[in-house]
Structures are given as C-alpha cells and as structure tokens.
Q: What sequence folds into this?
C-alpha cells in the first residue's frame, strides 16, 4: 500500500524537518513487507544496490534480476522512515531508489535523484496513462492529492516541467488502490462504504493505520461516507479540516471504538487472524496473507472510491558510467514482466500490463487483472493457494478499479500540524 522535509526544500509544502519526519515514520513498515535483506547471490564488483520497501524489494525479485541481467543486484528492504531517511541523506549508499510519487515534493527539490531519460526506457511507450495523464481510461477520475502524473515530468536539469517531457522523476512501477479489509463472517454483511469504519456495529473491533498522512485520509473518506463533512481536498487538508477530523477521531477513541492502531504489515495480519478486529484499513497483500492462514478476508471496493498509491524506480544522482548503464538495465528488466507477475500474485499492478500478461497463467491474468472468476485455485508468489476456484476479486478489473480513485497518498501543506494533531489523537 503509505513525507516530508523542510518547507524551503519543498517549494512551500509542509514544514516537517527531515529529522522530524524520520522520527514520526520510523515505525511504519510498507505494504507487503514479506521479505528483506540481501538476496543470496554472489557479490561481484560494482553491484547495483537498490533500496525500498518490502513491496518491491523481495529476495526472489532481486535474485531473478541478477540471474537474468548477469550482474549482482543487492536489495535492501527498510521500514518507511528508515527508507526515507536513507534515500534523502545517503544517496551514495544506493544506485536505485524504489520510491513513491507522494514523496516527490521532498526528493525532487533536493536533487538526490537524477532525471531519467525516457529514451533509454525500452518499454516507455507501453507504460499506461495512469501516470502520464492521470487517467488509466478516458472516463477515469484523476483523484485528489499527489496523483503520480503531477510529479512525473522533469526537464533535463531535474526541475519540474510544465507538461510531458523527455525526462521523468521515476519510472512508474508497482501500484495499487487501498481500502478496507474485513472478515465477512464477523461483519455479517458485505462492506461497501468507508463509513463502515465508524459503524457502531463494530465498536471495539476496528483498527486504523497508524501513519498520520495515510490514516487521516482513510478516516476522511469514512467521515465523508457518513455524510458528516466534505473536504475540499482530502490529499491537502486545511487546519480547520484537520481539526474537525481529529476531534471526531478523539471522540470515537474515547468511546472505545478502536481496537488497535497498526504500524506494520504483520500487525494488520495478526489482528484479523487472531480475531481481534472485524474490519480495518488494510493493504492488499495483507488480505492474501490472512487468507493463507485460513481466515476469511475480503478487500472492500467502497462506493466513495479507493485510496491510490504508486511506486517507481529512481536513480541516485551519484550513479554514473557503467553503473548508470546497469541501473537502466535493472529498470528495463522491471518493466519486462517477470517482476510484475510476481507482485501481481500479491494483488499489485504494474505499469506495463501487457508484459505482465506474458508471465502469468491465463487463469491468473483473468483473476488479478481482468476481474473474472478464478478458473482454478491460484497461488501467491510463494506457492500458497490463496484464491479458490470461482472467486472474484472485489472491485472488478484493473481498469475498473482505477477509474475510481478518490485520493492518492499525499504530503499535505499542513503536514507539521497534521502530525501534531494525530499525536494528540493517539494519546487521548
């Protein structure tokens, strides 16, 4: 599934210092943090070192890349705060940053990454319009907040371009649309609205994601779903809007509505596997992990729309020469399909779907991308059966799901104030 730097470094956004952000984000671990560390491959001279979250930095992925490319690829999966700090302050310690577009307000002005020349990206013309124009299909919603297309285009100096150009900040990669995960045996009904997060029917059995920048968006979607309040831009709330939302959350917390506030992928899984919660804001791979434990879990497709996020591959400004060539090779490998098929089996999408299709069985493609009933049982990337024959993925096809993105993960202008008020909520 989930920014931050000094105000002067972001051209006016926020005000949270680098040190403060790393402190507030250090406990958060990314969606799909199923593996980390370094692949067990022979380390030769001049490896490509990649850092990111467990969404994309997985032993099997970097190991396969090294095998296919013929040079070492060292992947390091970090928690969100540690990843952010290393990407921003130690760009000599990596060549590839497997980052996220919603952090671009910090990284792009800091010039820690170099502009990527799309002429060197073999499949650039096949990358979907989700990042290029903001619309996967002509009738799609762009969504509020830090939609990727608002942070994609650069000039050759690494400054923001006014529109499409030859250079980009990151090559679009894995992405998804997040919502609510629930146990249908516990809820007793299909969950079709974010408002259910605050239903009295589930008092004491609800968990919320404890990353302020994302947890507030999930809560805002629920508040709007209840008809209590309308936010002008859920991805960039004003102080009065933040106050309304946090005051509401404090009231619900004092009423005993929440069972927990989870910070890691594993915590969200354990809460439902152990029967502590009936529903929670959740990342898609957590649903597959819960089902792999034999516990029923469904990912909701709320009528208000989903919360989107988008990762990609950036290159450190320090990379040059042969190492830079290898960085482009690694990025091109990511777009060639094998890695996209691997993460598809966790519920993620990739920016060049037609290449992913080549590496999936027809039944897998039909289920994960086309939204059709599973023709057979389907496994996760590690071989555990997680989809039963006849099962249909909530939300339908890839194209249907991304027609309805209500808001994208974002860094708000009032990030300082947001984190302060969120901390008050947690301690209330």
A:
């Amino acid at each position: 599934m989930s920014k931050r730097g000094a105000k002067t470094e972001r051209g006016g956004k926020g005000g949270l210092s680098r040190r403060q952000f790393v402190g507030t984000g250090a406990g958060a671990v990314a969606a799909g943090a199923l593996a980390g560390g370094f692949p067990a491959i022979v380390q030769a001279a001049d490896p490509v070192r990649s850092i990111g979250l467990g969404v994309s930095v997985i032993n099997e992925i970097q190991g396969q890349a090294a095998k296919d490319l013929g040079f070492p690829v060292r992947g390091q999966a970090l928690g969100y705060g540690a990843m952010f700090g290393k990407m921003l302050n130690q760009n000599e310690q990596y060549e590839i940053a497997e980052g996220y577009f919603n952090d671009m307000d910090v990284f792009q002005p800091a010039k820690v990454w170099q502009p990527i020349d799309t002429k060197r990206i073999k499949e650039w013309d096949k990358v979907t319009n989700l990042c290029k124009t903001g619309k996967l299909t002509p009738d799609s919603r762009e969504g509020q907040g830090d939609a990727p297309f608002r942070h994609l285009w650069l000039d050759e100096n690494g400054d923001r371009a006014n529109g499409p150009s030859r250079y980009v900040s990151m090559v679009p990669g894995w992405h998804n649309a997040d919502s609510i995960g629930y146990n249908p045996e516990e809820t007793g009904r299909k969950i079709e609205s974010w408002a259910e997060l605050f239903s009295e029917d589930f008092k004491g059995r609800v968990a919320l994601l404890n990353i302020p920048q994302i947890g507030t968006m999930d809560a805002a979607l629920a508040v709007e779903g209840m008809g209590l309040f309308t936010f002008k831009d859920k991805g960039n709330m004003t102080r009065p809007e933040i106050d309304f939302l946090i005051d509401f959350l404090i009231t619900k917390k004092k009423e005993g509505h929440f069972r927990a506030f989870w910070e890691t992928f594993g915590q969200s899984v354990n809460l439902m596997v152990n029967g502590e919660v009936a529903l929670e804001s959740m990342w898609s791979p957590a649903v597959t992990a819960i089902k792999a434990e034999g516990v029923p879990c469904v990912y909701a497709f709320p009528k208000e729309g989903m919360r989107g996020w988008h990762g990609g591959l950036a290159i450190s400004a320090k990379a040059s020469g042969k190492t830079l060539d290898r960085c482009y090779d690694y990025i091109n490998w990511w777009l060639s399909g094998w890695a996209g098929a691997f993460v598809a089996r966790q519920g993620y999408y990739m920016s060049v779907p037609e290449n992913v299709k080549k590496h999936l069985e027809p039944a897998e493609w039909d289920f994960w991308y086309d939204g059709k009933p599973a023709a057979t049982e389907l496994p996760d990337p590690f071989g555990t059966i997680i989809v039963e024959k006849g099962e249909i993925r909530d939300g339908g096809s890839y194209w249907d799901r991304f027609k309805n993105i209500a808001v994208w993960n974002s860094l708000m202008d009032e990030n300082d104030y947001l984190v302060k008020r969120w901390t008050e909520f947690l301690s209330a």
